[in-house]
Task: inverse folding
């Protein structure tokens, strides 16, 4: 838990009630504000963990416009702050609206100080737990933290990465563009004994052929026009660490021969140099191309393929990863909403259906860009299919197919329900029409982990 004093910001324009609240909540370090501007000033100065606020604020205390404007600004400036809204006795509509915007809870006036104190205490505990969770995640630093999946094939890929990371073998990551090849390559490095050394990446398709050789192998001073100093290449720079050769399928044939010699001899010669420089490096490569087809077409050396592909990991495209599109979509919405100060955003039903129906030819990268744009473009606190720029798709009913075994049908239903509800066990159980214990039993049976 945090050792920092627990600061409570009280936003109330009635001086008598303000004084009463300071007295009632003297267990906290209280600061007060009586209008929107002073509240924002106190928020920036004290960074309170919890805020109580009246929706009726000057210049029109009988109107909630100023209060809702302030609530939105608080949630944008400090999204982790817990806001407890105080409303009129019969003002349930505005209370529900406030919670929908992202307020933690609401209380009707006049309130019982003891009950409100309990709610404030609970809000502080939740805030502290959230900070502790962030700290523990940072401490843990999972090597595959950037990869979010529930799909069995993708989970198998992750287990393979964890197994081969410590072995001194060359790994080839094969998959379509945008499937997460570099995330896995960095995971291989982070889980290996070379984790404290450098991870050096080079995209073989992004550099012109005339420059790629000098980028990979380096050059001596005077080796060609413009070579004004001795420059080590990427291979040499990665010594003792990991070299990631992205889009290896686009490597020109002359450089394939030179790379093969390096992999066999583990020495490099800079352009214009005669000295053989030994390099101890772990090589990981990736490509979206079919290397075996390229070998048949004479565009890729077979001997180089077998040097690079000591371990081959095939990464499934997003369209084949059950439930992952929606799982990732929920995560991207939360991340980009926070980055763009959009407060509480969620995906509407037509957006969920459109995401599920879209084939995602650009895979996770396409999905990420689509959600980033949608978060910016959404007019309300929900994202629609129009915001995504995708065609709306009607939900299709699951058709009973007697050729499929019951277990497979149940597993698919559980995966879809968990994805649609963003891992919420209670909601997923309701969608499936079963109890929570029954859902936990099914998840255990199918090897599906509950998201933390």
Result:
């Amino acid at each position: 838990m945090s050792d920092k004093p627990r600061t409570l910001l009280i936003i109330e324009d009635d001086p008598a009630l303000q004084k009463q609240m300071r007295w009632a909540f003297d267990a906290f370090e209280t600061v007060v504000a009586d209008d929107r501007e002073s509240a924002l000033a106190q928020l920036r100065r004290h960074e309170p963990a919890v805020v109580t606020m009246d929706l009726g604020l000057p210049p029109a205390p009988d109107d909630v416009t100023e209060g809702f404007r302030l609530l939105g600004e608080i949630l944008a400036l400090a999204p982790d702050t817990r806001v407890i809204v105080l409303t009129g006795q019969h003002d349930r509509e505005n209370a529900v609206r406030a919670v929908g915007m992202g307020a933690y809870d609401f209380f009707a006036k006049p309130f019982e100080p003891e009950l409100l104190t309990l709610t404030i205490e609970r809000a502080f505990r939740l805030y502290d737990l959230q900070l502790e969770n962030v700290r523990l995640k940072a401490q843990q630093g999972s090597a595959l933290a950037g990869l979010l999946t529930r799909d069995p094939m993708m989970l198998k890929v992750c287990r393979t990465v964890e197994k081969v990371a410590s072995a001194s073998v060359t790994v080839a990551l094969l998959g379509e563009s945008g499937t997460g090849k570099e995330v896995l390559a960095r995971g291989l490095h982070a889980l290996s004994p070379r984790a404290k050394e450098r991870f050096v990446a080079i995209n073989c398709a992004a550099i012109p052929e005339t420059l790629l050789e000098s980028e990979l192998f380096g050059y001596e001073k005077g080796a060609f026009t413009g070579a004004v100093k001795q420059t080590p290449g990427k291979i040499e720079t990665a010594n003792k660490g990991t070299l990631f050769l992205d889009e290896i399928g686009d490597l020109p044939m002359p450089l394939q021969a030179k790379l093969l010699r390096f992999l066999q001899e583990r020495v490099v010669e800079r352009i214009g140099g005669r000295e053989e420089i030994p390099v101890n490096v772990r090589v990981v490569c990736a490509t979206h191309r079919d290397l075996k087809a390229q070998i048949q077409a004479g565009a890729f050396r077979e001997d180089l393929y077998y040097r690079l592909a000591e371990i081959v990991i095939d990464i499934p495209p997003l369209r084949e990863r059950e439930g992952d599109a929606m799982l990732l979509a929920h995560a991207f919405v939360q991340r980009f909403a926070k980055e763009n100060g959009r407060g509480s955003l969620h995906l509407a039903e037509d957006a969920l259906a459109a995401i599920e129906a879209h084939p995602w030819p650009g895979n996770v990268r396409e999905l990420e860009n689509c959600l980033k744009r949608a978060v910016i473009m959404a007019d309300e606190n929900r994202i629609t299919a129009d915001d995504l720029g995708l065609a709306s798709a009607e939900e299709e009913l699951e058709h009973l197919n007697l050729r499929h075994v019951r277990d497979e049908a149940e597993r698919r239903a559980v995966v879809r329900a968990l994805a649609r509800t963003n891992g919420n066990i209670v909601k997923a159980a309701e969608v499936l029409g079963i109890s929570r214990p029954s859902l936990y039993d099914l998840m255990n049976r199918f090897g599906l982990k509950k998201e933390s």
Remarks:
- Residues 394-403 have pLDDT under 50 and may be disordered.
- The CA atoms of residues 193 and 332 lie 32 Å apart.
- The two ends are 19 Å apart (CA to CA).
